[in-house]
Amino acid sequence: MTIQIGDTLPAGTLTENTPANKVDVLEALGTGKHVLFGVPGAFTPGCSKTHLPGYIADYDKWIAKGVQSINCMAVNDAFVMAAWGEAHGAAGKVRMLADADASYTKALGLDVESAGLGGTRCKRFAMVVEDGKVTHLQVEPDSFGLSCSLSDSLLAQL
Q: How far apart, in whole angstroms, are the C-alpha atoms of residue 100 and residue 149?
């Protein structure tokens, strides 16, 4: 079942920078106001040219809205996510989180099978989480498009 507005985030673990650096999602996003957005894959064209750069560029706007952290997740390994973040200057603005086995993506109900992209991927989405509960959620209707999950689209909802 897909997560909905009003739902509490499921428990789960992602990784950051290395597979050994575990991030407990509820510890990271359970208190305060946070953005979590998901992309089909690091270094893919839409994700690299539009989706991630938009959140990096809008960092100050998000902070002005009371957001404490911006978090990007994808079904990639931690090394790939770290390299992708470094290539885009995400450090200090967007936290790059890996869901290597797609377990958290599946727990959110935001997984999509795509043989052309290497199997199970994350649907493109964006959400605002306040004290562990989803207050805003935008999921691309076709799973991969670039419209409602973009930074400016989600900002307009606040």
A: 22
CB neighbour list of residue 157: distance below 8 Å, 6 or more residues apart: 128, 136, 138
Better-scored residue on pLDDT, 115 or 74: 74
Instruction: Tell me which residue has tokens 């790059």.
Output: 96
Active-site choice (47, 72, 122, 148): 47
For the stretch 6-47, pLDDT in tens is 999 999 999 999 999 999 999 999 999 999 999 987 777 566
| Spatial separation of the C-alpha atoms in residues 110 and 45, rounded to whole Å | 20
Predicted local distance difference test score (pLDDT) of residue 112: 86
Q: How far apart are the first and last CA of the chain?
A: 25
Give just the sign of the alpha carbon dihedral 36, 106, 131, 14.
negative
| Domain count across the chain | 1
- CATH code, domain with 93: 3.40.30.10
Verify whether residue 148 is a known catalytic residue.
Answer: no
The answer to whether residue 148 sits within a structural domain is: no
Summarize the confidence of residues 129-133 as an average pLDDT: 97
Residue 34 lies in a domain: yes
Cβ neighbors of 45 (< 8 A, separation 6 or more) are none
Q: Could you tell me the two tokens for 113?
A: 């099978």
- Range of 43's domain? 13-126
